[in-house]
Design a protein that fits this description.
This protein is mainly beta and 439 residues long. The chain has a 22-stranded mixed sheet that branches. Strand 34 and strand 35 form a beta hairpin.
């Protein structure tokens, strides 16, 4: 009897993680990130030869401004009003960027203006093209203002679709396309007020960073059917990073709005280059188009302590989880609260993801998804969606509470879930009991 009581209490404690979690993630670190000061010494790129006519390539001039700024002990690179065409630039420690009103940093459409180096991409390292803005070990970095970084993505999207039409097995990495920004190995990073537009590939890729604030930014790309869709134009990719706050941002992209990423394959848990994704907050954001508000995967091993709150979505799925049958995965402690759903889409899209599946001769690994709370969801959607695992997936402790939505499709496909519960869930005005797994 004692043992059963202890187990029951343990289950309740684990499931009700969110009350402390919701108050603990906003700490003094957020204040520190928010107050990163723009250093007083300014370095206007036009003083180093940059011309903002949208025609002259300014890579050398902008990099010179960065180098001089770093040599003088740091400061702020100023991008003034104008359209400044550039290839890849490389930030240095102590160098910040400020965009004046009307400033546009426009990426070149020549892939050769983006050097090929050994870089982090899709959960591993390989020689690939770098981003427009690149930062490595740039603690206390600030990229702020009211400007735009335009990835000039259309020619890169066109090439991707043309290659795929010729060979249906064409993958993302077969067609080189630059990201807009790649920041790695850095602490105390603030990105505020920037419009990330039409990236050739991912917009903002944050790898092995800690204490990051991304606020008041816009992430947009064409998102219709091909050839107008922007393939793999993820808004933000949080890769192997911890303590990240994404606040008051807008997303309308051709792929996942926010993706939480790590590594993949049967040896993922041994990958020292891919620490867990932990303590991520997504607050007060708007999602117009894209695969999902937040997507777990497609390459990731451990993701935990995730909070999504006070967000609105038009089409992107509320919670999307990609379960790789070739990768051991632990996704846990996920709180989604106060969500408004408009027009269409689904609440859950949790299912196996077999893209580029490779067990490398190993037995299929186990996956665990547990401690999920989806609460206070209102509005209209197409369907509740699905929570489906592969043969080695275990689901535990999922609560759906205080939901009032209108659906056009009442189907909800479920695998077996230990401790699954509906509380005060209304669909089309009718109070629903907890659904059962598919037979």
């Amino acid at each position: 009897m004692k043992r059963n009581l202890v187990l029951a209490l343990s289950s309740i404690f684990v499931f009700d993680f969110s009350s402390s979690f919701a108050t603990s993630l906003i700490t003094e670190r957020q204040s520190e990130i928010s107050s990163i000061a723009v250093k007083s010494e300014l370095f206007n790129i036009t003083s180093y030869g940059a011309i903002g006519n949208g025609k002259v390539l300014n890579t050398t001039s902008i990099q010179k401004a960065i180098d001089v700024c770093a040599q003088k002990g740091g400061g702020t690179i100023v991008i003034p009003k104008g359209i400044f065409l550039t290839g890849s630039i490389f930030l240095k420690k102590g160098v910040n960027i400020y965009f004046e009103d009307g400033a546009v940093l426009k990426g070149s459409t020549d892939i050769n203006h983006y050097p090929k180096v050994n870089t982090r991409i899709e959960g591993h390292f390989e020689p690939w093209r770098v981003a427009i803005i690149n930062g490595d070990a740039v603690d206390n970095l600030s990229i702020t203002g009211n400007g735009t970084i335009d990835g000039s993505g259309a020619p890169f999207w066109k090439e991707f679709y043309e290659r795929r039409d010729i060979n249906s097995k064409t993958t993302n990495l077969n067609v080189e396309r630059p990201r807009i920004a790649f920041i790695q190995n850095s602490k105390n990073v603030k990105i505020s007020g920037i419009h990330f537009k039409d990236s050739g590939f991912w917009n903002l890729h944050v790898y092995k960073c800690k204490d990051v604030l991304i606020e008041n930014c816009r992430f947009t790309a064409l998102n219709g059917k091909k050839p107008n869709n922007a393939p793999s134009s993820d808004g933000i990719d949080i890769d192997s990073s911890q303590d990240v706050i994404i606040s008051k941002c807008f997303f309308s992209v051709g792929d996942d709005c926010i993706a939480l990423k790590g590594t993949k394959g049967p040896f993922a848990m041994q990958d020292v280059d891919s620490p867990p994704v932990e303590r991520i907050q997504i607050l007060d954001c708007t999602f117009e188009a894209g695969g999902g508000i937040v997507t777990f995967g497609s390459e990731a091993s451990i993701i935990r302590d995730i909070k999504v709150e006070r967000c609105t979505t038009t089409r992107p799925t509320v919670l999307r989880i990609k379960l790789r049958p070739d990768t051991p995965q632990i996704y846990e402690n996920i709180s989604v609260n106060d969500i408004t759903v408009k027009e269409s889409g689904m609440i859950f899209k949790v299912e196996p993801w077999r893209q580029y599946f490779d067990l490398k001769g190993q037995e299929a690994p186990q996956s665990l998804v547990r401690n999920i709370r989806v609460t206070n969801v209102n509005g209209a959607a197409t369907t509740m969606g699905n929570i489906l695992g592969h043969d080695k997936t275990t689901f535990e402790n999922i609560l759906v509470k205080d939901v009032d939505i209108t659906l056009t499709d009442g189907n909800f496909d479920l695998s077996e879930i230990k401790n699954f519960k509906f509380e005060n869930v209304k669909v089309n005005g009718k109070l629903l009991d907890t659904p059962v797994a598919n037979k």
